[in-house]
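note to self — DONT lose this again. spent like an hour looking for the file last time. sequence + predicted structure for the chain T wanted, 82 res
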Amino acid sequence: MKKKGLQTVWLMLVVAFLYLPILILAVYSFTKSTMIGSIRGFSVHNYVTLFTTKELTDMIIGTVFLALLVAVLSSILGTLGA
């Protein structure tokens, strides 16, 4: 019984280690603050800037295109290798 409890604790620590940084980034992405460490209220200004700046939208489009290309090529190579 003691081993099962220890496994549960380890599982919770691993899940926290994996998902806590993502949660922190998500929370800070919706703040008005420009520095990490202070949360000054809710804002979507960062996302408005992200989707209205031409250079950033071009980077997003390029990244999505590259990801799709890699997914298609990986699927083809994986199918051929199977």
